[in-house]
Amino acid sequence: MTRKQNQVIVDSISIYQSERCLWQVKPSKYHDHTKKDAAYNELVKKLEELEPDATKKSVVAQMNSLRSAFRKERKKVEASKKSGASADSIYKPVLWYYDLFDFQQEQDIQRKS
């Protein structure tokens, strides 16, 4: 990835984090489609720096992909902690933007089955 691509991803994650209506399910703003559309439009403008024909659909796909990769990495970290591994052998995430998605941990609380 180029430096510009990385910066657009960092900026997109920052915008996504600030727009709680896109990811925080509990408040009623999550169900406010007007606010969500405005937030997605802001993300579309950012993504247009790389992809001039970016759409809401492509932004949603990109954010879902980034979040999915983050969750996979976090799952590996949690599994290594549960295995009783020493502090030195706990899995270290290789995803370069892993720390940027740290805000998602409060949202992704697993339910008991």
Automatic annotation (TrEMBL):
The record's listing under InterPro entries reads:
MADF-dom
Q: Which residues form the MADF domain?
A: 11-109
Q: By what name is this protein known?
A: MADF domain-containing protein
What species was this sequence derived from?
Cryptolaemus montrouzieri
